[in-house]
Design a protein that fits this description.
Length: 138
């Protein structure tokens, strides 16, 4: 009888100890977004894909100037949500700049493997462009 009365206490003690042990700090929530290094080759490749797709849709040549933010989400494949600045390339000169957000769905087992699922751009800050232009003219 004493053995039976000790089992619940042992289990209670064990569960208290396990509850006090923290899990891995970097474990993302299932289906949640996880920060990525904007300078990684994977992220830069996804940004290049998004801008190439945009260039084809609008029959203009855009280039990525830099990636400012990146997140990924595990789904049936991987979603990448990126923030970056693009510039229109005309006659070897950079033209109008835009700050963009894009989501690319990557599924490496399919061909084509990547799909641009959303893309939104706003004109870059006019004052920043004016300052850059003034610097180049001096």
């Amino acid at each position: 009888m004493k053995l039976i009365s000790r089992i619940p206490r042992s289990l209670t003690s064990l569960s208290l100890v396990l509850a006090a042990v923290p899990g891995p700090a970097s474990t993302p929530a299932v289906g949640g977004w996880t920060s990525r290094d904007p300078d990684s080759s994977q992220v830069k490749g996804v940004a290049e894909f998004a801008v190439k797709d945009l260039s084809e849709q609008f029959a203009r040549h855009f280039v990525v100037e830099y990636v400012s933010s990146a997140e990924s989400q595990v789904v049936e494949g991987t979603n990448y949500r990126l923030g970056f600045r693009i510039a229109q390339l005309a006659d070897e000169e950079l033209g109008a700049r835009k700050d963009c957000t894009a989501v690319v769905w990557e599924r490496p087992w399919l061909r084509p493997a990547d799909q641009l699922t959303s893309f939104d751009c706003q004109s870059a800050d006019a004052s920043a462009d004016a300052a850059a232009s003034a610097t180049l003219q001096m």
